[in-house]
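Task: sequence design from structure.
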């Protein structure tokens, strides 16, 4: 209960208010799930029956893990300020399988810090301040690990240099990330890691790769090797001899990868030694196990002024790729490397034609020269499922920024949406958020961002609050089958026919047709027959200025995803009718704003029985058709972000399978009681339902306190219910801060009201007792007064029943006539009492005294002149009061002395209650009353007693 106010009279009201608030808080506490926020700020939740504790980003300097469940299996302590890890810190968490301490400014680890973690499988110590000093990082810290399989220690201050001393305790390691030395050297001690299959080397400090750099891996069973984020290894094109076969002068020796025939996946990123130089390293992989090559940013750096060399480096010819084309690759990704021409015949190399599954040449300049030959040759590939050709001018746009809050089990349905089919996701090396690639049984690459998914257990330890947040897709740069915007067509008319491989599953056409280009009558045909498109599952047609569809799309019987975002779209209502397998339809940012006015969204989707995901982001929508999904029973995700909805535009009962509703960036101010109730009931029916309300103009005002309580009580909202809201004073507040003190906010909103209610109740009680006492004390007098009033109501009122005989209403400018003429006649000759405001008003409110005087007067005499009607402020009020005071008991109460010129200006409401005999006309106010006027006035006042 809040502190009592100084006045004891307010306790009753405040007690009632506090009882309501405390009862609400008690109910909220009991609705929390079994796991939640522990006392130290960690968020504890359960994923697939495994307890995860997320204690990241709390700025801890010391750890107290006593509040965590002892059966916690995943502990995330990233981005804190721990400095030193003490002995036995984790000894009570014996069930831990994954421990992440990335980016926590750790400088020292005591020898027995990890005591009790014999079950640990994954340890992340990357991006800290650890050095090779044995006093701060003793190799014996690993003696407690018996099942450790993955270790991440890259981006530290030299601990990788003494890695060989750790190996005796790390013989079960299968995945390792580490820093590379200046002269990259993998020593023979690595042969002790007999289970090592995945090695990532952060090459920030590497300045040279020699022919013995990987000597320690010559007899290993390594499958995946990733060399990422070179920053200091560069070659000056002017000093490089392209025709030389000698490798002694190169920073990256051509013999570096000899004897590594077991490698299956090789990735090299940001190694700017030149495209033609990088391909020479593959001479030792012919007839090897290598099947996946990922090259990113391998061109010469732009700060060298060598136009001839850089030009030649962007042209891929048969002679320069003779080693690479002899390898049976299933995936080749060579991106962001300024490649602008590929010689004919390279793409259709026999080795690639029979084995290539995915070809990614995005982020290059293939639209300038030589773009037609590789495009035409892809039809000869027997197993090609995806080809990506794009130019470097495509902007870094997240095509799917709203696909963030998805349940874990969705990952298995169509992972391309969440990861946009990337071969990798790279970030600046200072955060070390690189990927770890793992092989699955189908010789494909599984992609997991290093900072979150460093393990083969993505479905167990993926998410926070059972919600997956995918990395930015940068999909516009990495994923499309592309033409040059203005290619050098020989004529202005004709049709370009592009035959698709029968195995093609993904077709991407992004930024292909622009409204200001000179295509003339050119047209492009991608799909010719139904057989050709029967295996197509993903069709991305994004960022084109036009899409005209006058018929049906036929033959795409296996299509699951169709994206026509960012187009000027002109299609018929039945355009999507023949897509029986379509699950994902994306209609984001349609450029013609009247599209959804001309075409009914309900009609567009009504013949898509398998539709599960609909995205209409950024289309200025403020209304959805009723019963929109009446024929789409499987709809589970509805993305309505960046529109103009001010409430929930669908009826929740009509979408029984909806699991995610995105209303981010709309005009929602609050949800009313009906909407809150319907959403809560839907969550009860669909336990994994989530609602996104970020970036709305929510209000945190007292009138919507119930909505704020609902935000605090609902565990299915994005951002954990933490939003920006506007207060009554126009301040921008955080609901998270506001809801931490719900009692205080409730008291602020309702405390004053309850205080007033308490005073009113106290006053009523006092009045009740006072009235009861008076009735008992003066019962006889009250009975006599009531009888007198009752009897009086049935007879005409007399002048004796009033305190004053005549009330005179006049303008200030007419006071001379009243004082010298009228009062002389009334008071001296007729002997009546009068009320004149110049004489009889006392201190206080003028209007109140005037009304009281009129109420106590038997007759109301109004002097209606030009001054009275036009210049007197109270004239209208006095005339209205006078007209309303006429009753059956006093019908002749109002008398008017009217100046002859104002006879026709008497207001209608006053004229209606005046009899003709009670309207006395005055020719002017400067002379005395004549006989007729005096007699008429006397007749109006003749009942005086």
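Answer:
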């Amino acid at each position: 209960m809040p502190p009592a106010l100084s006045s004891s009279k307010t306790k009753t009201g405040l007690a009632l208010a506090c009882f309501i608030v405390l009862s609400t808080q008690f109910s909220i506490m009991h609705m929390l799930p079994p796991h939640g926020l522990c006392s130290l700020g960690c968020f504890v939740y359960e994923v697939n029956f495994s307890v995860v504790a997320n204690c990241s980003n709390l700025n801890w300097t010391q750890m107290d893990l006593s509040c965590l469940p002892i059966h916690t299996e995943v502990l995330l302590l990233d981005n804190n300020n721990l400095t030193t890890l003490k002995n036995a810190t984790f000894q009570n968490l014996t069930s831990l399988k994954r421990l992440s301490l990335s980016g926590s400014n750790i400088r020292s680890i005591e020898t027995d810090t990890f005591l009790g973690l014999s079950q640990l499988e994954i340890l992340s110590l990357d991006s800290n301040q650890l050095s090779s000093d044995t006093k701060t990082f003793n190799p014996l810290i690993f003696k407690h690990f018996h099942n450790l399989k993955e270790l991440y220690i890259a981006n530290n201050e030299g601990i990788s240099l003494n890695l060989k001393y750790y190996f005796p305790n790390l013989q079960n390691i299968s995945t390792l990330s580490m820093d590379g030395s200046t002269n990259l050297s993998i020593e023979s001690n690595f042969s002790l890691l007999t289970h090592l299959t995945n090695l990532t080397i952060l090459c920030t400090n590497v300045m040279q790769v020699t022919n013995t750099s990987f000597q320690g891996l010559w007899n290993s069973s390594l499958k995946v090797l990733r060399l990422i984020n070179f920053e200091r290894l560069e070659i000056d094109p002017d000093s490089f001899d392209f025709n030389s076969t000698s490798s002694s002068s190169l920073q990256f020796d051509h013999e570096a990868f000899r004897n590594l025939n077991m490698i299956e996946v090789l990735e090299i990123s940001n190694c700017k030694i030149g495209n033609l130089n990088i391909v020479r390293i593959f001479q030792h992989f012919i007839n090897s196990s290598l099947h996946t090559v990922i090259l990113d940013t391998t061109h010469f750096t732009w700060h060298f002024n060598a136009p001839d060399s850089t030009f030649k480096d962007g042209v891929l010819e048969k002679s320069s790729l003779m080693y690479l084309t002899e390898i049976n690759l299933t995936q080749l990704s060579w991106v962001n490397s300024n490649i602008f021409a590929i010689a004919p015949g390279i793409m259709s190399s026999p080795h690639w034609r029979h084995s290539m599954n995915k070809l990614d040449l995005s982020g290059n300049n293939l639209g300038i020269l030589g773009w037609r030959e590789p495009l035409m040759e892809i039809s000869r590939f027997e197993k090609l499922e995806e080809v990506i050709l794009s130019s470097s001018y495509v902007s870094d746009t997240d095509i799917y920024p709203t696909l963030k809050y998805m349940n874990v089990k969705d990952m298995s349905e169509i992972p391309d949406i969440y990861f946009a089919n990337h071969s990798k996701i790279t970030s600046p090396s200072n955060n070390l958020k690189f990927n770890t690639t793992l092989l699955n049984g189908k010789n494909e690459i599984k992609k997991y961002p290093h900072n979150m998914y460093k393990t083969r257990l993505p479905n167990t330890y993926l998410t926070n609050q059972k919600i997956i947040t995918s990395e930015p897709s940068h999909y516009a740069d990495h994923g499309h089958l592309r033409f040059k915007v203005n290619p050098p067509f020989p004529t202005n008319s004709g049709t370009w026919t592009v035959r698709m491989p029968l195995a093609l599953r993904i077709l991407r056409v992004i930024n292909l047709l622009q409204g200001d280009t000179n295509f003339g009558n050119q047209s492009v045909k991608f799909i010719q027959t139904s057989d050709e498109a029967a295996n197509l599952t993903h069709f991305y047609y994004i960022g084109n200025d036009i899409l005209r569809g006058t018929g049906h799309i036929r033959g795409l019987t296996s299509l699951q995803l169709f994206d026509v975002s960012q187009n000027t779209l002109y299609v018929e209502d039945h355009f999507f009718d023949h897509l029986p397998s379509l699950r994902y339809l994306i209609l984001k940012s349609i450029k013609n704003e009247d599209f959804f006015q001309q075409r009914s969204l309900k009609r567009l989707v009504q013949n898509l029985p398998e539709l599960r995901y609909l995205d209409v982001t950024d289309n200025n929508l403020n209304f959805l058709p009723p019963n929109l999904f009446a024929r789409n029973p499987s709809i589970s995700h509805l993305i309505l972000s960046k529109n103009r909805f001010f409430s929930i535009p669908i009826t929740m009962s009509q979408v029984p399978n909806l699991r995610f509703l995105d209303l981010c960036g709309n005009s929602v101010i609050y949800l009313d009681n009906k909407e809150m109730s319907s959403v809560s009931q839907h969550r009860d029916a669909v336990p994994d339902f989530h609602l996104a309300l970020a970036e709305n103009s929510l209000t945190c005002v007292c009138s919507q306190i119930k909505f704020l309580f609902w935000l605090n009580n609902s565990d299915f909202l994005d951002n954990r219910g933490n939003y920006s809201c506007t207060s009554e004073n126009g301040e921008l507040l955080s609901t998270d801060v506001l809801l931490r003190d719900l009692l205080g906010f409730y008291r602020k909103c309702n405390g004053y009201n309850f205080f007033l209610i308490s005073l009113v109740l106290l006053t009523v009680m006092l009045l009740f007792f006072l009235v009861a006492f008076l009735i008992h004390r003066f019962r006889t007098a009250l009975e006599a007064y009531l009888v007198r009033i009752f009897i009086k109501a049935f007879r005409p009122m007399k002048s004796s029943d009033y305190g004053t005989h005549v009330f005179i209403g006049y303008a200030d400018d007419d006071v001379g006539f009243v004082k010298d003429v009228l009062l002389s006649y009334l008071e001296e000759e007729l002997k009546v009492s009068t009320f004149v405001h110049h004489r009889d008003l006392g201190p206080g409110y003028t209007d109140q005294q005037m009304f009281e005087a009129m109420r106590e007067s038997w007759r109301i005499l109004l002097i209606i002149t030009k001054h009275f009607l036009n210049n007197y402020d109270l004239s209208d009020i006095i005339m209205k009061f006078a007209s309303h005071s006429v009753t059956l008991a006093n019908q002749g109460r109002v008398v008017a002395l009217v100046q002859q010129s104002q006879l026709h200006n008497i207001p209608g409401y006053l004229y209606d209650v005046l009899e003709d005999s009670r309207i006395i006309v005055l020719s002017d106010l400067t002379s005395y009353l004549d006989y007729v006027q005096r007699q008429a006035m006397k007749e109006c006042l003749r009942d005086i007693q």
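Residues 1-35, 245-249, 392-493, 515-522 have pLDDT under 50 and may be disordered.
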